[in-house]
Automatic annotation (TrEMBL):
<protein>
    <recommendedName>
        <fullName>ATP-dependent DNA helicase RecG</fullName>
        <ecNumber>5.6.2.4</ecNumber>
    </recommendedName>
</protein>
<keyword id="KW-0413">Isomerase</keyword>
<comment type="function">
    <text>Plays a critical role in recombination and DNA repair. Helps process Holliday junction intermediates to mature products by catalyzing branch migration. Has replication fork regression activity, unwinds stalled or blocked replication forks to make a HJ that can be resolved. Has a DNA unwinding activity characteristic of a DNA helicase with 3'-5' polarity.</text>
</comment>
<keyword id="KW-0347">Helicase</keyword>
<dbReference type="InterPro" id="IPR014001">
    <property type="entry name" value="Helicase_ATP-bd"/>
</dbReference>
<keyword id="KW-0378">Hydrolase</keyword>
<dbReference type="Pfam" id="PF17191">
    <property type="entry name" value="RecG_wedge"/>
</dbReference>
<dbReference type="InterPro" id="IPR012340">
    <property type="entry name" value="NA-bd_OB-fold"/>
</dbReference>
<dbReference type="InterPro" id="IPR004609">
    <property type="entry name" value="ATP-dep_DNA_helicase_RecG"/>
</dbReference>
<dbReference type="GO" id="GO:0043138">
    <property type="term" value="F:3'-5' DNA helicase activity"/>
</dbReference>
<dbReference type="GO" id="GO:0006310">
    <property type="term" value="P:DNA recombination"/>
</dbReference>
<keyword id="KW-0227">DNA damage</keyword>
<keyword id="KW-0233">DNA recombination</keyword>
<dbReference type="InterPro" id="IPR001650">
    <property type="entry name" value="Helicase_C-like"/>
</dbReference>
<dbReference type="Pfam" id="PF00271">
    <property type="entry name" value="Helicase_C"/>
</dbReference>
<dbReference type="InterPro" id="IPR047112">
    <property type="entry name" value="RecG/Mfd"/>
</dbReference>
<dbReference type="GO" id="GO:0003677">
    <property type="term" value="F:DNA binding"/>
</dbReference>
Amino acid sequence: MSGFFDTKIEFLKGVGPQKAELLNKELSIFTYGDLLQHYPFRYEDRSKFYKIRELQPDLENVQVIARIRKIELVGVGGKRRLVAYVADETGEMEMTWFKGIQWVQKKLPVGAVYIFFGKPAQFGRKWSIAHPEMEPLSQATEKRNTFQPVYSSTDKLRARFLDSRGISKILEGLIQVCYPHISETLSQEVLDQYQLIGKREAVKEIHFPSEPGLLQRARKRLKFEEFFFLQLRLLMMKVSRTEKFRGQILDNTELLTDFYQNHIPFELTGAQKRVIREAYHDLKSGKQMNRLVQGDVGSGKTMVAFICMLIAISSGTQACLMAPTEILANQHYEGLKEFADMMGLKISILTGSVKKSARKIIHEELLNGELKILIGTHALLEDVVQFKNLGLAIVDEQHRFGVAQRAKLWAKNEEFIPHVLVMTATPIPRTLAMTLYGDLDVSVIDELPAGRKPIQTVHRYEKDRLKVFGFINEEVKKGRQVYIVYPLIEDSEKLDLKSLMDGYESIARAFPQYPLSIVHGAMKSEDKDYEMQRFVKGETKIMVATTVIEVGVNVPNASVMIIENAERFGLSQLHQLRGRVGRGAEQSYCVLMSKYELSKDSRIRLETMVRTNDGFEIADVDLRLRGPGDLMGTQQSGITDLLIADLSKDAPILTLARDAAQQILANDPHLTQPVNAPILRQVKQQKKTAVNWSRIS
Ligand code: ADP
Ligand code: MG
């Protein structure tokens, strides 16, 4: 059956080789199936007609019924255009063509009445529409729909009369030949339970809606289907993984209890406790854990990680934590060493700059099991790093690591794959998480430790600079520390370095009394660390940096974050940067400096930052501004292949589709029951063309 939909588009009536080639090139439409899935991107209400006198600036596309009074070629050379002067009983206007002039000229008879459609523009007092769609009034049939589909097209296609209307025409022919071949992809149970219309009807209605209600149902059905199969594939991956890999049973909580009763420096938040319980449930289940912990910056992910390590260790295994940068690995090491020492547990750090002799000791102690916790960068992944029994591998800020790197971590235990806990502070909207990480279990730390004061954020311009400097001065006098961050964009690295250096100099001039640090990407990693350490220890008061400080660094005494050229940063990056402050008991501030003229999107980004500290709300705005294709990790996920469903708008349908997929797999994990036959057929069909799902990160 799929064979039929693979038929080349050139064999369709009214297409032919030339148009087919253009459709291939311009819209990647090669086959019947491709064209059938070239869904309209919106619909136009064609029940309304305008009189010429009613035309107004700001109107979108309108329909006008008018008689052609005169046709004329105007101008010469490249500016040549065809003008039709048309009129109704209220006035006159012009229709103009710059391309396809000969064809139009032949087609338009003076004296005939046409329905013209397009966006009106005003020149002087005269209205005109360039390249209108048109149809003789006499031919406008009754079945002509009030809801007209609008298809994306291109200039080249339009020049060949494959405008939205032309595409609709060939689709008419296509639907006729395809209709009997369209088969159902969902089971009757799913159709009934979610009150979805059949596939055939949905495809027909999406292209040729018979009434608004049915169109709505057709859209819902097709969106549901897209989400459903996306979720189904992810969940099936999870099923096959849990079947393949057992997990070590890690269920001893002795160390945890000791730590909790005698050493923990603060009360855990409710959210931290919940996430620990969720992880513990996995660790003792006998199945391998693959869990993502999402928590906004400062939500206390490190403590969750440490407590999970304690469970792993008292159950007789070892634990490791991998961080994306040396600065971050060091910071984790320093922080966790204090706790590990209290508990009498041996902990080490392994990064690129650890000396050979020290490495050797680490390797030995890992193998004989003396070393319980290893912190490090991707140096952990080297083959020489072998554990006696690695029970738990934790990855911090996972989006910085590729999947291949994570797979290497898995291989660190031959008998059992280690349990994996992945932590990220990049807030991902729930809808996206469901899709991106559909094969992982997700825990969310959605609560900040008590007593945190929300960071106050303001937006300032160059003219406010003196005031901002005055504010910095006051804060430093109170004993606080300050970050000043400059953008770094790869293709203009030199320029950015210059603006960073200029900034550094002006700050040095403004604050000769305060020691400064500077950190940027072009520095050697030892120098970066050295500067960073001086700031951590409080020896320097102001840190001038590029976004290298974005991830994870923890300096609770820093209370002010100044972001220069804030309009050049993405929303999630701004949020990450702001998360560097507000980690101590003091009131913290974030100042977004920008130029005066801002694009609409930049303005929304800055306003959002000023309005809220909630990472998930920010992520939602980000998703709406950029679309999912731009977000981290989505490129390989197949999300960008969605044809009709929209992650930022169709969250409720996604949730339904996920529930449906879950329910089906719970009863029939391999889709072998007869009722699920249509679903299985579709899964197999898609497998042939699907992206490599194992690459989801
Ligand atoms: P992130 O989730 O961004 O990695 P961290 O784990 O670095 O956050 O924690 C941020 C700060 O909050 C650290 O100084 C940590 O000690 C502190 N912290 C974590 N949990 C709590 C808690 N329950 N109560 C008070 N402070 C906490
Ligand atoms: Mg962290």
